[in-house]
Each structure stands twice: as structure tokens, then as C-alpha cells.
Amino acid sequence: MTISLDNSKEGETKSLQPKGWLRYFSFSLDHKVIGLQYLVCGFIFYLIGGLLASAIRIELTSPLSDFLPRDVYNQVLTLHGTIMIFLWIVPVVNGAFGNYLIPFYVGARDMAFPRLNAVAFWLIPPSGLLLISSYFITGAAQSGWTAYPPLSITTPAAGQMIWILSVLLLGGSSIFGGINFIATILKLRRPGLKLMQLPMYCWAMLGTSILIVLSTPVLAGTLVLLSFDIVAHTGFFNPSLGGNVVVYQHLFWFYSHPAVYIMVLPAFGLVSEILPVHCRKPLFGYTTMVYSIMAIVVLGFVVWAHHMFTSGTPPWMRLFFTIATSFIAVPTGIKFFNWVATLWGGRISLNSAVLFSCGFIVNFVLGGITGVALAQVPFDVHVHDTYFVVAHFHYIVYGGSVFVIFSSIYHWYPKVTGRMLNEDLGRFHFALTFIGFNLCFAPQHWLGLNGMPRRVAEYDPQFTFVNQLSSVGALIMAISILPFLWNIIQSTFRGPVSGNNPWNALTPEWLTSSPPPIENWIGPPPLVKEPYGYGRNNKDSNEITTDT
Amino acid sequence: MSPAIITTILGLLLVIFGIWVGDNANLLPIDASTNATIYDQLFSVLLSIGTILFFGMLGLVLYSLIRFRRKPGQEGDGSAIEDNLPLEIFWTIVPTVVILFVGLYSYDIYDRMGGMQQLDLSGHNHQGQETMVEEERIWGGIGSGSVEDKSKSSLESIPIDVTAMQFAFLFHYPEGDFISGELHVPVGKPISMRMESKDVIHAFWVPEFRIKQDIIPGQPTILSFTAQKEGKYPIICAELCGPYHGGMRSNVIVEDTSSYTDWLLKNAKNTIT
């Protein structure tokens, strides 16, 4: 039997996955299928995490611990944090959009390591189920997503061990993904495509992947040591055996501060893709954007101890981490000014994607300002571990990353399905989310300043009204998911057909059919040298060539 | 009026608004310690800067969305502006300067709070030489066991041993050798607490004092403060410590020296000279 190499490859791809919707439940090697697997799986975990958040907000409508048993409340807040970080935001902003978009952006037909890619995804559902199952088997971990010893050593061991195992598996998945993105971006670029011509999301993913690959192993090692302390009664972090609990905090935050950038840098990249398309303008300051991302990556490694200003840290260390942390505001600020400059003078379509992106800018600016304040040691010692911090990081990860996830879904939905979403429902979804989010979290700044610590089921009755206000906001956020879900479901079947490029975008993923064919392009991949070349008179000659 | 003048006026109004908010917003509880007064100065400055930045950015985004929205029937792209070097240098330098200012200012605040003092040295201060610093030394980090020397040599600072456990604070007064569940301190006197945990990490937080320090098992920590307003304030555990974490609270009672002495004498196990 003689068949050409190309045919055999095609045959292999086809045989590896079932046709139709079943391929989304298979060990598919197609980066687009894997991207959607990440997205839908992450969204299901988001709904579960949201239910847990609702339980927390219901508990906090009254100053007494009267809704959940106390130990269950601590399990709920631990699961909420862990699920939202490790099963929703990190897999979606990296795995979902990264897998779907990066091969298009570099002009490749798939990721560098398709099998590793599928393994990385298929680690997530079992780890998530494992984590949640711990609640029903023995009771989940009770020590928060930070799992500080000695609390994590003294609370029931089974739940904590399952938590560690699950986070280790998710960390592994994250590392596999990071290696794959680095290899794809650096080694799988279409010939003729230079690094400084890549769409900004590639740079964001390159920076993020470097953070993942260098910092996640530290978390893994730390959690392995913690598990030894729990099951083998070693004394790494157990003070009664001579261990040091502050060392755990250093190791934990060495990963978990970069984790914040792992959640927001890809979001920065996605916004940089969305805004130019709908403003019909080039992305402002491409070069400074690239350097800003890399500056954030470097600085992101030397700021971790700002989470520990009230732990045992010597004065010089507090001072060093104050300065390092503050300076992250400079590259971050540059990015925000660049986005505003991208809006400036554009022809902005006020659609759902733009509204969510602009909501992100506003929310994140507030979260960034409170972040710089929190970096100041004297300011932090009062509000550390209070609702001020809760408000701050929800402005970063929800007001930031989750708003961008929604913006991206509105932007790329026609790409993935070939159909348009309903814009009126989308704007309604935005209005509900924006109002609900700000009503939920803005008052929490005041709560923290005035004396409400975080992770409590009961509080001083003087805070009742403001907590109820916050809970009303949470209720609006919960309701806001309904128009979104309805929009997605009904548009999948009845949405108007979008055509291949409904936004007239120039980035390479739009220069093929929507939805795209199995290896992205029928012919050779296009060479896009100016992915943001809007507003040029010579747009037709904008190097969308197909010659190699 | 030209756009430049309008922009300048709007910018000035924004700055005035920010400063007004920083000076007048009443977002913090009463300042019951010397530390709190210094803290509130820093808060006011940070709030002014934050207000200016936030409303400035919000205004720019809203203005852009309204002014540059695509009108019905409008075709074509926006202008192909890709960069503007002077503008980019401007908005790199301005945040850098603001950050440097905030950093230096908060360093100054930190120093005035006594944060830069080496703990093990503070016990060996010569009287008079560093009086002011000693009075304002507000918090420490990990202690080095020199508390007892310090309490003798330094000016009348009242030593208190704090023990935290699931889910209570215990305050041991070496002067009367007794243990109290509530913290009593005289107004205007420096207090020096040596804190230790029996089980997991706790944190000692008095919002009205603006101080917080983790209480760590196996590593004593030191916290110093001087109360300046009489009253009863909550002591709150701020580090997740188990199921009853939210209930781990006590009170600090700041009273005048004679009431404090009465209380001390009433509870003392041994006679106080």
C-alpha cells in the first residue's frame, strides 16, 4: 500500500476522534476542540464555584453563623477559592483561549505537542471531581486556598490530602500547557513571521507560560512537603516538631503571587486583541506593550512577600517588597494608557465585547489602585486579611479576568460557531454583571477598613447592612448568568449565520472559515505581518499573502 | 475655549476633587492609638491619589466610548495612530514619579511608626537618646527574646504577654502576675506585647489602633503601641484559625492611669510596689 505522507496524517487525525459533538468528549488532538473542552469544563466549575459563593453571601446576610455549620463554611470558602482559581480562571484564560488562538496566531495547524495538550486538559475534570468529591466523602479541606500550616496539618487530614492531590494534578496540567505554549510560540511560527509581528496575546501567553513553568514546580514541591507533614508526621512546617510555618508562606506565595499574573496577563492579551477590532484602530504602543508584559513577568517573581507583611518578616524585607510591588504599577499602567489610547479616535462599536473589555479596564484600575496601596507596609498592616483585601482581589480576578473571559466569548463566538450572539441580551448581561459586581465588592472595601476580617462566618452586627448590600450585589451577579446562558444556547441553534469574518478583523484566526476546518486552513497559512493594520489606506496590500 | 484649556481646567478640578475626598472622606474608625493618627495621614494621601487616578481613567474611558462611538451609517476605520513617543514617555514617567513619591512617603510613615527599628537593638536603647523613637515604636516583627531586658531598660513601657489559642486571647500581666481575657491598657503609655501561639497561626488586630501582627506558633512576635483615646475597642483574630475563627474576639479597654492601676491592683496576685 502506498500512500503519501499527507494522506496518512489526515487519516490518523480523523481516526483519532469521533465526528460531531462526540469529539468534545474524546481524547481529541485538535487544538480547537481542546480549547472548547477547557472553556466549557471551566464554565461548569465556574457555576459550581458561584453556587459556593452564593452560600457564603447567604451566610453573611446575618451577623450570626446561622446558615452553614462552621466547619462546612470553612470548607465552602476553601472550595470556592480553589475552584475559581485552579479550575475556572487559570484553565480558561490560558488553556481555553490559548489553545484555540495561539496556533492561528503563529500560523500553525496545531500546538507543538498535541498529545501532551490533550493530557493537560484531561487532567482537569478528574482533579476537579476529586476535589469536590472530598466534600461528600470526608469533608473538604478547611484551611482556605492558602492551606497555611499548622492549620492545614491539624484540620481533618483526608480532606486536606485530597485538596493537595487535586492541586498537584492541576499544577501538572498547567505546566504541560505552559511548556506547550512556549514551544508553539517560539518554534512553530510560520516561516517569515517575526516575533514582533505576533498578535499581543502570543506575548501575553509567552510571559504567562514562563511564569507557570518557573513557579508552579515550587508550589508542587511545597505541597508535597506539606503532605509529608500530614501523613508521615515529618516536621517541615510543623512547629511542634521544629518546623517553620513562615517558610511555607514564602514558598506558597512564590508561586501564588505569580499566579495572579497567570490569571491576568492572558486577560491583558485578550483585551489587546478585542479592542483594536471593534475600535477599527491599531493597537496603541505595540512595542511598549511587549516590554511591559516582560517587565511584569520579571517583577512578578520578586514581590511575593507583600502577602506576608504581618507575618514574621524583617523590616528590610518589608521595605524591599513594598518597592518591588509598587513598581509593577508602572508597566501595568502603561498597558492601561495604551488601551485608552486605542479607544481614542476610534470608530467604536458599543457591542457586548467592547462593553465587557471597558468594564474590565475600569474595574482593574480600581483593583490596581488598591493594590498599590496594599503594597505599602504601613497601609497593609491594618487591612491585611480583611474584606478590603477580599474586595481588592475580586476586582483583579473577577472585575479583571472574568470580565475579559465574557468579552472574549462575545468576540470569538462567531468564530467558533459560525453564528452571531444576540447583542441586546449581551448588553443586558453586561449591565447586570457590572452593577452586581460593583454592588457586591465595592462596599467590602469599607468593611475591611472598619474592622471586618476575611474568612469569617460571623461578624460585628454594625456591619449587617453593608453585608446585605453586598449580598444583593451577589444575587444580581448570580441572575446575570441567566441571560448569558440563554443567549449561548439559543444562538447555537437559531443565531443568525455570521459569515467567516463578521467583525472584519485582520488577525489570522479570522482569515479562514468560521468555524475553521480541522487543520485551520484549507491552503497554506496566511502571513499576517500587521495584525492591527486598521485605518490604513493601503489595507488591501496589507501582506495577507499566502505564499511561503 | 481651546481643548487644551478645557483639559487643563478639568484636570485641575479632578485634582482638587481628589484632595477634597482624601481630606474629607470618613472611611476609617476612630484613631485610638498614636499609630492610627500617622496611618490616617498616609490613608488620606493614598485616597487622594487613588481618587484622581480612578476618576481620571473612568472619565477617559467614558468620554472615549461616547465621543468615538460608531454612529449609525458610519463606515470606515478610525485613524491609524500606532504610537506617540512623547505621550508614552509622559505616561511612563508620571506613574514612576507617583510611585516613587508614594514609596518615599510610606517609608517615612513606616519609619515614624518605628518599623525600621531593629528589634534586638531596641532593647538596648540608651535613655534619652532615642526617647521619641521609643515612644512611637509601634510594631515589631519576629522577636528575639529580648523583651524582658527591654521592659526594664526602656521608658516605662508596660510589658504584656499575649497567648493565642483556638479560639481565645489570654493576656498575662507580669506586673501583677495574673491572666486576663480582656486587655486593659492605660492611655498614653507605651505597651509592649510579646505574643505566642499555642496551636495555629492567629493574628492580633485592633482596627482602631491600625495595627495587626500574626501570632505564630514556635516564633514569638512583638507588637508595641501607645493608646491615645479612652474607650473599649474590639480585638479581632485576623488569620483563619479554625471553625470558630469569626468568634475569636476580645476587647481592649483603654482607660486613664488611675482606673488602670485600680484594675491592676484588684486583679494582682502579688503585691505591686
Task: Provide a descriptive summary of the structure in words.
The complex is a heterodimer of chains A (548) and B (273). Chain A is mainly alpha-helical. Chain A has 17 helices and no strands. Chain A has helices at 5-16, 31-59, 70-106, 114-122, 124-137, 151-154, 157-187, 200-232, 245-279, 286-300, 315-327, 329-343, 352-375, 377-383, 387-417, 423-450, 464-494. In chain A, α9 runs antiparallel to α10. Chain A starts with a helix and ends in a 54-residue tail after the last helix. In chain A, 59% of the residues are buried. Chain B has 273 residues and is an alpha+beta fold. Chain B has two domains: 3-67 and 86-112, no CATH class; 126-267, Immunoglobulin-like (Sandwich). Chain B is built from seven helices and eleven strands. In chain B, the strands form two sheets. Chain B has a six-stranded mixed sheet. In chain B, strands 5-11-10-7-8 form a five-stranded mixed sheet, with helices on one face. In chain B, α1 runs antiparallel to α2 (34-67) and α2 (34-67) runs antiparallel to α3. At the A-B interface, α3, α9, α10, α11 and α12 of A face α2, α3, β1, β8 and β10 of B.
Order of helices and strands of chain A: HHHHHHHHHHHHHHHHH
Q: What's the number of structural domains of chain B?
A: 2
Total number of β-strand segments of chain B? 11
Output the CATH topology of chain A.
Answer: Cytochrome C Oxidase, Chain A
Biggest interchain interface, per-side counts:
A-B, 95 and 82 residues
Q: Largest sheet of chain B, if any?
A: 6 strands, mixed
Low-confidence stretches of chain B: 120-139, 141-154
* Spatial separation of the terminal alpha carbons of chain B: 78 Å
- Stretches of chain A where pLDDT falls below 50 for ≥5 residues? 1-14, 538-548
Q: What can be said about the biggest beta sheet of chain A?
A: none
How many angstroms separate the termini of chain A?
31 Å
Radius of gyration of chain B: 25 Å
CATH superfamily of the largest domain in chain B: Cupredoxins -  blue copper proteins
Q: Architecture of chain A in CATH?
A: Up-down Bundle
Assigned CATH superfamily of chain A: Cytochrome c oxidase-like, subunit I domain
Q: In the CATH classification, which architecture of the largest domain in chain B applies?
A: Sandwich
Mean pLDDT of chain A: 92
Which fold name fills CATH's third level, the topology of the largest domain in chain B? Immunoglobulin-like
Q: What amount of the residues of chain A lies in strands? A: under 5%
> How many structural domains are formed by the residues of chain A?
1
Q: In CATH, what is the class of the largest domain in chain B?
A: Mainly Beta
